[in-house]
Amino acid sequence: MSQFPPPVLDGWYPDPGGRFPHRYWEWGAWTTWVSDDGFIREEPLPDRTAIAPQAQLPPRSLWWALGGFLVSLFLAVFASLAAESLTLSLLLSLVTLDVGLVLTVWIVTRRYGTGSLVDDLGLRFTRHDLAGGVAAGIAARAVAGAAAITILWLVGEDIESTNVQFDTYESNDAALYIALLAAVLVAPFVEEVFFRGLLQGVLTRWIGVPAGVAVQAVLFALIHFQADASAGANLVLMAAVGVGGAVFGVAYQMTGRLGSAIVGHAVFNLIASVLILVTR
Length: 280
Prior knowledge:
This protein is an alpha+beta fold. The protein has helices at about 60-80, 85-110, 115-120, 125-155, 175-205, 210-220, 230-255, 260-280; strands at about 10-15, 20-25, 30-35, 40. The longest helix is centred in the C-terminal third of the chain and has 35 residues, at about 175-205.
C-alpha cells in the first residue's frame, strides 16, 4: 500500500493509482486532476485504487492498541460478573468494552497520529458506501454461513451452535433485545473503528496487507468467544465471525474508508438478528 502524508488540508498527494507523481485530494475524495512533471491535466482514477491519504500510525502503536484491548476485555468480564441481574450484567459489559475500545483508539491516535479519526483511521462516508456496505454485509453473511456449515459438518455440532452468542439471553426478552440492538447499532461503529481502522491499519503497515487483514480477523473472532459454550460451538461461532471480519477488512483496504465496513457490519448483524427473532 502506498504511503501518504496526513491530509491536513485539501491538496496534492502521491497518486494512489501510481500512474502520476501527484493527484489532487479535495472535499474528502480524489479528483481527476493530476500533476505530471509540472503539467496539470485531468485523468480518471483507475478502479479499486481510491485509497484515501491517511496518517501513518507507527508499528509501536500496536502494543498500545493490544494493551487497551486486553484491559477493556478484562474490565468488561469483571463488570458482567459483578452484576446480579442478566440485563444489568449485559449492559455493564457492553458499555465497559465499547468505552474501553473507543478510549484506546482515542489515546493511540492522540499519541501517535493527528488525533482525528477521519485522518488517522479513514472514518469517512461517501455516497458509494451505502450500496457497497450492503453488498459487503450480504456477501460476508453468505460466506460466514458457508464457513459455519463446514465447521458444523467437521465437528458434528447442530445448527443451533451458530446462535450460541445469544443463547444466554433467550429466556430474558430485555437482555435479548439489548444484545441485538447493540449488535446492529453500536458494535458496527466501535468494532470497525478499533479492529479495522486501528488494528488493521497498523498491522498492514507492519506485516503486509494479507497478513494484517488475517490477524485482525482472528483477534476480532476471539473477542466473541463464549465461555459457557462447547469447543465445537465456539469454533463455529468464531469461524463465522472471523470470515465476516476478513470481508470487512478487505472492504476497508479497497476503499481506504470505514464507511462501507461499518454499513456492511451492521447489515451482517442485522441479518443474524432477524433470523434469531424469527426462529426463537
